[in-house]
Amino acid sequence: MKRNDDFEERRKHLASLSDEQLEQRFWELANKLVDPLLEMGYEYTSPSVERSVLLRMGFSSVEAKAIVNGCIERNLIAHGAGNVIYRLAKAKNIEIRDAGLLLYEGKCWDEAEAQFVGGDKK
Question: Quick check: 77 and 50 in contact, CB under 8 A?
Fold first, then answer.
């Protein structure tokens, strides 16, 4: 099977562009391609994504799993597990790690939930 080489035909609309214009066009198209992915990242999450975030925050996999499960049980997962920990730490004026460990131990969940009263997603 021979491939039809239509490269010259397909590049006609680009032939008159300079290297700078081609680079600009490339980034314009790349951004168009990535925009829906970024939007999905802001709108949707999953337990595995949330565990991954907590791992990068320095929590162990066991701690991350327990915290994420606690967020799911209390319908806080949409706010982001890292955000739940951050907001609790800010409210209690403690370190982020300490706030996460409190949640891991099953403590302060009421206070964590109170940070999101009314569906606030700050």
Answer: yes
